[in-house]
Structure formats: structure tokens, C-alpha cells
Amino acid sequence: MPHPLRLAIRLLLLLLLMGAGVGVRAQLRPGAVPSSRRCVWVRVPARRDTTTFRLNDTLTVVPSSVSTDGRSVAYDARTDLYRIYWPSSRVESPEPGEPDLRLPTNRPDSVLICYRVLPVRLAAPRYRRPRSLMDSSSFQSQPFRGYADLGRQEQILSTPGVNKTGSLTRGISFGNAQNVFVNSALNLQLEGKLTDKINLTAAISDQNVPFQPEGNTQQLQEFDRIFITLTHPHWALTAGDVVLRNKPDYFLRFYKNVQGAAGELFLGQQVNSSVGAGALLPSPLTPTNPGTTGPQLPVPSPQTLDPRYPTERGATRSATATATQAGSSIFGPLRSSTTVAAGVAKGKFASTTVEPIENVQGPYRLRGPNGEQFIIILANSERVYLDGRLLTRGFDNDYIIDYNTAELTFSSRHLITRNSRLRVDYEYSDFNYARSLYHLSHYQEAGRLQVHANYYREADNPDNSPNLALDDDDRALLRRIGDNVSLAVAPGADSVAYDRRQVLYNRVRFTDPVTQQTRWIYTLLTDSTRGAYNVRFTDVGQGAEGADYVLSTDPAKANANGRVYEYVAPNGGVSRGRYRPERLLPTPLDKQVISAGASYRVDSTLTVFVDLASSKLDLNRFSPESSQGQAMRVGYVLEGRPLGADVRSYRLADGRPAYARRTGLGGHWQGYRLRSALDYEYTSRSFAPIDRYRDIEFDRNWSTGATQQSNATGGRISREDNILNFSVGVAKDPNNAVNYRVSRRYRAGEVSGIQHWLDGAQKVGDLEMRGSLFILGADAGRRRSTWTRGEAAVRYTGGPVVPGYAYRFDKNRVRLPSGDSLSSANYFDEHAVFLTSQDSAKTKYRLDYTYRRDQTPTADLRSLQRRGTAQTWQGQLTTRLGKNQDLSLLATYRDLAARDSARQRTVLGQGAWNVSLLQGQLRSELAYSVATGREPKRDYVFIPVPNGQQGQGTHYYAGDLNNNNRQDKEEFLEAATPDAVYRTHIKVFLFTDSYVTAFTNRFSYRLSLGAPRSWRDAKNWRATLARFNVINTVTLDRRTTDKDLLARLNPFAYQTADDQLLSLSKVLRSTLYFNRSNPIFGAELTVQQSQQKTLLAQGSETRNLASQNVLLRRTLATALTSRLGATRSIRENLSYLPLRNFRLEQYELQPELSYQPSGVWRFTGAYHHTTKRNTLQLDPNEPLARGAFDELSVETRISQVGKRTLSGTASYVRVGFKGVENSVIGLEILQALRPGNNVTWNLNVEQRLSNGLNITLSYDGRKPDGLRVIHTGRMQAAVLF
Question: How many Å apart are CA 214 and CA 207, to the nearest integer?
Fold first, then answer.
């Protein structure tokens, strides 16, 4: 083949590969790092309770990210091995001296291990120069000095046996234009052994982190925890931030974040920590929640609360039984665990139901139990349930949550419809009163007998309210209302002195033009000579009685630095607003539960138990009223009794074998085991648990609302509750089992009925069948509920493709006994067919089609009619294309035709495609997702920084620019310098309760293109191409209201000026490198565009930035280098505030020359020329502002490694400006400088005094034209541990 033809073919192949990269994608969240998640299959050895494996990857594996089926995997750093601990299949023989029995297990033959990797391999060799240039002959002249000091760490205090990291810093800042500030920071981590048996773990810090970790990952890095933990084989002690969780107890459930101390004492032989959820006496301070870092008291994982499987108690008893000899007597070996804990609780528990919106994934805002609109969720305290199933947090899993705004958003895995059932348990921050918490528990085991007792109390201190100001009138009101907390309402107006920094009101007389009645109302204060009132308004719902105020939409009022409410007169006596000038007074609570229980293991499979509890609830500690209640539960659990034929051996008294015989049933029941349970539960009318202890859908399954006594305002009437449960079933494995359960419940005046549950599974050859049936007949108050629901599914697993069919129905009729007034909570039937791959297939896929038909009562409430039909298509695909491509797709389409709404078509999907070609030099990563969500309307306000934190703000008040004698939002500007005088305020977003349904589109693409490494040493055109590198990045996240399907799918369909575009975050960046790694000459060309549009309550705010930058660098000599940079940029700001709008065109030219004769000293000289011009004409009578800046600067730096570093900079800036200096655009152009001659300088000294002790001195000076010199000095000392 001729050489030109071969060259043309190679070029064509290269272009094809580059073009293919355009369609490649990776699973990326917009603005996040490229996805690094990988998964591999690991074989599970048979007849072993531990699976050990090693992950061989070309990149560094993050050990904490390794998980399987949502559970973390243990890692041994010394051997680089991972271990999976399975529940033990060994059971001690009931006959003394017999070998242990091994139960059949349902473990898979292999498990899918998922993990994340770093973008580099830390253990790989790295070098910045060709190895051929290394002079190895000089090694002979350097004597070997040993390895003694290679691992020594700089530190002042030596603590043998305890590893410590961190620092202690103390600093001071002062100047002639600011006050004196003192800064302090302590971060210290300790881990090691104090003695042979006492281990120490500690994290100590004096920094108060005002925010929480993001809730978009399964595991949270809670960096604000402070704790000290001491552990011993027989005791454990933790002080600081502690997570308290209950040990196994039926009535007492809690999960609390506290600041305090907790200790445990262990006596006797302890259960190994691998027992997990079944451990009655857990090992000390073993983390049980994989999603939390930091200390927590060890308790089992949350147990199954599903009433269909009454094995919660049985699981605990049977697991404990395996840890004790089966032949032990009643009072055999003693073991005990005692816990004592006390502290201050960080939050309150709440359980709320979220109303879903058809086809909207979120965000859904969580509210407090008493109607609090804006709460802060404590990190990792939430438990989210969808249709009764517990979900997993994480961007790649089921949902993400913003803890600071209490907003919940579901991923594309689950399509949220109006039929979805959303329930969330959580703890929310509440510092109205200081809440103390006390907990005592003792668990004792004596052979077959186990007893336990618990005491728990959390109480608010009515005399200590950190964030709540109560006067004498408020306290008197709280004492009068007793426990009727719905009456804790006080007037919201308070007479104050005039302050221009606050939004104040004036009280005026208003006469209704229709009724001629007069009343006092509040209007925005505009005259400082009149009476001023600080008024607090409460959202009571649209049209509520007395709700006569709304948020002002007047642009003049909305510009105020704070929310402005205005009065709206009632129409015909009906209120038209949603706010009342009042404030709700929280009441201090007192909750207490004392519980006790005992269980006796009759044999290895049968356990009888009893649980008792007593509670006390005081909804208002200002009042002496309180309520007390009791609860009781008694029953038995039979778990794992063999039904099939078994061989039992018998021995003589001296231990010699006598004979063996076959016992049990044979035939079809071979291998099956019997399980059964019976329990009776009674709760008195005033029993109030700490947290929810029943199944999340317990009350729904009885066709009633929440029946648990709570601390919410307007709670349900307390009633006695009687529940009797009985279940029986047999099981061989998950594919062969049957279980029946019946429940009888009587709650006077609310529920009286019977439930029947039937579940079964059978596998015949390759055919798997499953089914469930639920029947309820109950009187719910004055109505009769007849409920039947079930599911039947079948699938065939004999071929490479697994087909299946499922039928589901839910038919609940609630009506009066006479048959009139029919209502229905849920009435539908659904057909589903699917095709899926085998579990062990390399390419995984699944195709689903469902057809659902819903019915609803007719207008006369006598019969049912069709409500709507929905068809849903869903497809999933995960595969690896060759060795260099990964593909993942998920797509859902739903077509809903309903009687009460227009036809809705929903598109939901996401995908990822990663490609790596040309020896890794071509990397293409693409992510794309579409969904339907909501966009909140935001508001913002500027608040001054607290005392002692001056200089940490982001904005400053520029003065009364509009001359209205009031601080307005448009008068606050971003700080241009680090001076404290320009950092006096922070911008805080206020989230409103107004949402706009929007279609979301997220697109992210990254292309990195370079020549293969082997081309760098070539002599032809390959060497020329090897000099170029290209990196392109596109990130886009937008929300629109356009219902056009093609426009919703196209990520580039809208511009910022489009009215249908609600919000936008867009970043485009492309960089072309020439001789990127060449030390002599190199060049860069960068083109960047960023656009951001935010939806506000008063309108929108848009910020655009487009820039082009060229950078050239050239090494003139060994010690002389030069750089030349040129930039053109356009910065635009558009908002509903006219004074803040501008379009700034800017040109920059910056040559630089550096001289470095040695590794100690460097001298740099630079010239920077900048021109700025405003091109947006706001007022035709005013000229466009412009400025020219010429800056000449010199910098010198002296650095002695390990000793000191001295650096100094001096700059002369000549500023030419035309325009109004004190306008927004003028301040934006000048950036804290003044027209004329400006001089700036700084000096920094870093000195190492001794090992681990450093001191830093810094001095900054600035001389604006026509103003006095501004001096700022800082000094800081740091100790490294």
C-alpha cells in the first residue's frame, strides 16, 4: 500500500475516533467530579462464613467506598484484603457432645462489589523528567545514613503509642481602618493505645461549623463532630458529640444526636461483634450505621417492623441463642451490659407524610410536627420510605436531601406519582429550649433467661431558652393554657426604636369600605418620626381566619433589605391573605419511658417473652398537667424447627455412640423449617413512646390515621389499643416458603377489625412463583372498611433472558354501614410484564411495561367510576463495551389519562457513557438526565456578621445610593478586597414556600484529547500532533416550563432571556495546550462561558461571563523566564433591581518577567494594563462609565526550605475613570480603588521556630488617591501536632 494512502487511512481512523467521543458519556452530577464508581463480581466460597478478596484495579481504590448491596465491607490495611462476614450457618447440636449442625443458607454464588477509585494510582512511579537524564553515578559519593529519620514527624509534644494529627493556631489582625480581631483554631485527631487494654480515639476542635454535610452520598463525612472515646474489653466511655441508639426493646426506640457523655460496662463473655443485628450484648462502641462517621453507642441495626413477618423478637432471641450453649441451664453463664448516658439533645424526632405531586421528583420540603415551615434536619437522622420500603440516600441511589433547607429530591430510579406513599422520619434542630437527655439500660443474660430494663427521659428546661425570648406575659399565657398547646399564640407586634437597618411598620387605623368597621393594621414605615413596630408574621394558610397579610410584590417595597408584608382587606368577611401578625410560642416538653422485658429460651427454636413499658408526656412544662400511660406485650416465637427427615444420634453415658434414628417428616417437607409466633399487645390511652416503634404503614393497613400519641399540636384523642397477632409458616429457602398471619385489633371508637396475611413462594425447576394476599375487615369509626390487596408474580429463569409477569391489585372500600357515603383511599389493579437478564450476566438489562387502572367514588358517593389509566414503559441497561467503554442507561415514559386533569406524558431518564482510547489519551465522559421537578422562588437578605467575626463577610453596605433613608438590597455590593471594612455583611437566601413545576435537564460532557505517549519520540507528523492537548468541558443544569417534548430533551434549547427558562447553571470551557509539558516554550488558549439564572420571589437574576484568554511562556535563560497574557471578557448582571444591571467589557494585557538565580531567591516584575467599559445604557442622560488601569508591580521572594520564607510585593496603579464613582457600576469598575494614583504593598514572613512551631507575620498597605494610608497587620502562630 502506498505511503500516502496509509497516512490518509490513519488520519481517517483518528477523526472517526474523535467523532465517536462526542457521544460518549459518564454518570456525572452537574458541576461534580467525573464518576469513578466501578463494580466487579466476587465469587462466594461454599461452606465458609467469611469471604476474603482483593481488588485489583489500575487506579487507587478508596477502601471506605467498597460496599455490596448497600452494606460496607471490612478492610484490613495491613494485608490489603477485604472481608464479607456472613451470618453463621453453624448451630450447636442440641445433644451434648454432638458436632455442630450446619444449616442450609441462601447465599449467592457470587456478589457484586462496588467501589470508587481515585483519578490516579498513588503507588505508581512518578517522574517529571526523563529517567535517562538521571545521574546515578553520583550515588556512590553519598554515604548511606540509614532509615531512622525517614518517618519522623515534626511535633513539639511527643506521645508514644498515640498517633496525632492536626494543628493549633492563634492569630491577631489589626489596622487603622478596622478593629482588632483575634482568631483561634484548634483541630486535633488522636488515635492509639494508652495502655495495653485501653484504646483512645479523639477528634477535638474549637471551630463551630455553621453548616452540615451534603446529603447526596450514602456515607456522610460529618466533619463537625467533636468526641473523645476510651475503650476497654470490659467498658467503653465516650464524651462529646455522641449518637445514641436503642438496644433491642420493643416499646423504646430512639436515635438521638447529643452533646454529652455515655459509658458502657460489660461483664462476662461477650457476643462477638459480627453477630450484628441479633446481638443482645453488643461489643463496645462498634459503629453500626455505615452512613455515619464518628462515635456512637453500639446497638443493633433497625429491625424489621413489618407485621407480616413477626420475627423481630425471634431474630433477636435466636441469634442470641446461637451464642450460648444449647444445653445450658436456666441460670448458666452470666453476661451483662450496662449503659449510662446523659447530655443535651440537638434536636427533636418527627415523622411526617409528604404529599406527592404527579410526575414531580422534588424537591419536597419537610415541615415540623407543629407546622414549622422552615426547619433544619440533623445529618443522617432521616429515614425515607416510599410505598413502605426504606430507601437509600445517595445521588446514585434513591434520593438526595438538603439538610439545611429540609428539601428531599428523588432520583430517576423511582418515578413519583400521585399514588406514591412518602413517609419520612427525621430529627430536626430545635434550640428554643435547652433539652437534657438521660438514658440508663441494663441487659442481663443468665443461661436461657434474658432480662433487660431501660430508662429514657428528654426534658426541656423552661428557664433556659437560648433562641426564644419570653417576657412575663408570654410565660403567664403558657401557664394558663395547660397542655392545649394550640392556644400558645402571642401578638407579633412589638414597639421599638427606629432603626434604618430593619424593616419596621407603622400602626394605622383602617376602615372597611363595606362594613365601615375600623381596625388597627400595620403598614411599612416610611417616616422615621412616627411610631415604629417590629412585627412578626406567621403563615397560617391561604384564606385562614384573620390571615389578612401577604408578601408585598411592589418593586419599591420588595427592594427593602428584608421581607415586607402588606395588608389585604377581606372580601365579604373572608380573608384573602395567608399571614397573621402573630407568633407561635413553642412549649417546653417532657417525655419519659421506662421499659422492661424478659425472655426464656425453652429450646433452640422456642422462646417466650414479655415486654412492659410506662410513659410520661408533658406537652407544656409551664403547666403542671401531664399524662401517663402503660403498655404490655407477651407472646412466644418459634423459629427454625425442622420438619423434614433428620438423623439424630444418641450416645451412652460414657460418651460412646449408641444408635441413630431418623426423625421428623419426610417427602415433600424435607428441608423445611417451621416458624410460628403469637403475641398480645396492649397500650393504654395515654401511652406515648419516644419514637415510632411500629411499622411505617401500620395505621394505613388498618384504614386509619396516625394513632400514636405524639407531641404535635392538635394530636389525636388518646384511646386504649388491643392487638392480638398469630402467625404460622414453613420455609426452606427464599424461593420455597409459605406464611399465614392473622391480627385482631380493637381501639375503641377508631378501629375494630381483623387482618389476614398470606405470603407464599414456590420454585418448580426454572419456574419461580410468588404471591401475597391481604384481607381486612374493620370498623373505622363510623365507617366500615373492606380491603383486599394482593400480588401474584411468575418468572422463568431457564434461559439467558428471564421473562416474567406480575398482577397487583388494591381494592379498599370505606363506607357507612348503610352503604351510603362511599370513600376510597386506594382502588386499582395493575398488570406488568418484564424481560430481564440473568443476575450473573455481563450485560444487565431490564424492560418493563405496566398498565394501571384506578377507580374513585362517583359524585353521589354510592359507587365507583374510572379515575384514570396509566401506561408506563421503562428500560435499563448496564454494560461494558470492550475494554475501554462503559454504558449505563435508564429511561422511563409514562402516559396518564385521568378524569380530573389533562393528559400528562412524563419522560424520566439518565445515562452514562465513559470511553478511554489511544492509551488513555482520549477520554470522553458524558452524562445526561431529564426529569420533572420544582423550582423554588428564593428571596435573600443581607445581615451583618456577628461580633468577633468581622472581616468574614462577603458584602458591604455602599451607602444610601437611592436617598430613601433605608437600607435596600441594591445598596449592598460584593467585597472587592480582603479588608474587613468591605466584609461587613453576608448574603443569606430565604426560601419561600412557593414552587413552580419545571422540567429539568442536566447535561455534562468532558473531552480530553492528546496524542499517545509513543508519538512524542517520533520524527514525523506524529511528533507535531503530540505537542497539542485539548480539554473541553460542558456542564449544564436548567429548569423550564415549556411542555414541548423536544425542547425538554434538548439541553441547549434556551437562552437566559427566555421567559420559560426558570433557572440555569451553564459552564462551557475549552483549552488548547501547545507544549504543555515543555519547560522552554508553551502556549494556552482558553475560551470560557458561564451563565447563571436564579428564580427569585420578585423576578429573576442573571449573571453572564464570557472570556477568551491567551497565555504564552518562554524560558529566555536558565534563570530568566517570561510570560505574556491577554484576556478579553464580558461580564453581565441583569436583575429586577435596575441599579444593579450592567454589561462590563474588559480587556487585559499582562507581560511578566521572572529572574531566579537560585532555588532561594526569585524576583518578578510585571505590568498589567486593563480597560473596562460599561456597554449597557440605563439612563440616556448619563454617559457610559469606563475606566483604564495601569499597574506596575514588583515582587521578590526568598525561601529557605525548612527555615523561613520572606516575600514582598509593591504595586503602583494609575486609574483613569469617567462616570459616577458612588454608583453601582462605578464601584464595580474601581474595585475599591480611586481615580488617580494608587499604591499598594504587602510583606509576608513565615518563620519556623522549632519542630512543629511556625509563626507568620503579614502586613498590607494601600494608599488610594486623595485618601489616607490604610494599614493592616496580621500575626499568627501555628503548632503542628
Answer: 19
Grouping H, G, I as helix, E, B as strand and the rest as coil, residue 540 is coil
Q: Which residue is it, cell 385489633? A: 745
- CA–CA distances in Å: residue 843 to residues 789, 840, 849: 35, 9, 20
CA 379/CA 221 separation, integer angstroms: 10
- Spans of all domains in the chain: 37-116, 187-323+333-347+434-443+454-460, 350-429, 489-584, 786-901, 918-945+994-1085, 946-983
- Peptide bond between residue 800 and the one before it cis (omega within 30 degrees of 0): no
Model pLDDT for residues 908-951, shown as the tens digit of each residue:
899 999 998 877 788 899 999 999 888 888 888 888 887 656 66
Let me know: does 132 contact 156? Beta carbons within 8 Å. Answer: no
**CB count in 10 Å sphere of residue 364:** 23
Q: Please, which pLDDT band fits residue 150 given cuts at 50, 70 and 90?
A: very low
- Cα torsion 548, 550, 555, 560: sign: positive
The DSSP line for 225-281 is: --EEEEEETTEEEEEEEEEEE--S-SS---EEEEEEEEEEEEESSPPPGGGGGG-SS
How many CA atoms does the CB half-sphere of 244 hold within 13 Å? 34
Instruction: Name the β-bridge partners of 848.
Output: 834, 874
1098 close to 1137: Cβ distance less than 8 angstroms = no
Strand, coil or helix: 31: coil
* 669 contacts: CB under 8 Å, gap ≥ 6: 643, 644, 730
Q: Which of the residue ranges 321-335, 827-841, 1098-1112, 1242-1256 would you say has the lowest mean pLDDT?
A: 321-335
Q: Evaluate whether 978 touches 524 at the Cβ level (below 8 Å).
A: no
pLDDT grade for 305, boundaries at 50, 70 and 90: very low
Give me 988's grid cell: 443569606
CA max distance for the chain: 115
Sequence-separated contacts (24+) of 71-76 with Cβ below 8 Å: 71/290, 72/219, 72/290, 73/113
Confidence grade of residue 658 (pLDDT, cut at 50, 70, 90) = low
Do residues 793 and 770 lie in contact, with contact meaning Cβ atoms separated by under 8 Å? Answer: yes
- Sign of torsion, CA 341 342 344 347? positive
Q: Where are the alpha helices (H) located in 370-439, listed in sequence order?
A: none
**Mean per-residue pLDDT, 1017-1033:** 85
471: alpha, beta or left, given left = phi > 0 and alpha = psi -120 to 50? beta
Q: What is the pLDDT of residue 302?
A: 30
Residues 765/800, Cβ–Cβ less than 8 Å: no
CA distance 12 to 4: 12
Confidence of residue 23 (pLDDT cuts 50, 70, 90): very low
